[in-house]
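cron nightly-structures :: item 1 of 1
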Amino acid sequence: MLWLRYGQQVMPGIFTFRNSLRHAFLLGVSCYLFLIIFQPFGTYNFEDSGKYFLLAGYGVIFAFSYLLASILLSNEKKWTVRTELSRMLLVYLSATIFNFLYNSCIVSQVPLKWINLLYMGLYTISLYVPIGLIYFLTLIKTNWKKPNITAPNAAALPQLSLTGQRAFVVDKSPIVCVANGSQLLCFGRQDFIFAKSMDNYCEAYFYEDKIVKKEIIRITLGKLAEQLMGADIHRCHRSYLVNFDKILTKEGNAKGFLLRFADTEEYALVSRSMLPAVKSYLLS
């Protein structure tokens, strides 16, 4: 489930015509240099006066395949991690086919056979995987360095706090914006219901247009608590952060409580060790 959500992360600014040309050129040059330096797949034993010129054709094929895949996916409304992975797959498939035709008709001049297409697929993936992986990881790292602030008019709003994230004030009602991948997830403190720890992630529940929404945020529960704790929002368990104003019913005794909320079947727990710290909120 987490990988599915990660695949939907938006990568703003990744797809532009200029970026596609630059990346296509770098991919083609990288493949060509790899072939002439390491000379894999029997290239070392290939003897021809125009050997290096012929090998350059494979670099051109990779560059063309990248541009072709980019054009085919250019109508995507949002360029996500999943879209980028789709582009890489299309590059591989088209490069395999073009390499097969190029090798059979021009370089080796051998009959077009399905078995040769299979071999070319293996050669292509052996060449493309290390280069493509470096390219993809570089894109992810570069894109994730600068979160995209999606809060409306966020730049014009007065900053409320600085503790690793940002919080803004709109109409005197504090809105907390938490870094979530390449974007900022923003919601009002008064709309927060509760959050559940998932190691380095949190499963946060909050109201958006009077509807309970769930988001998996890339932040620890401790850091999220630093942003939200105050008023009636408190840690009540090692794995739960709760807005006690949103509690609908309380079930339990002195050993612990189970907290339920309106508009959702999900619940939070109060641990026995933290019960004294939040007891007054439970009794109010």
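cron nightly-structures :: done
The first strand starts at residue 159 and ends at 162.
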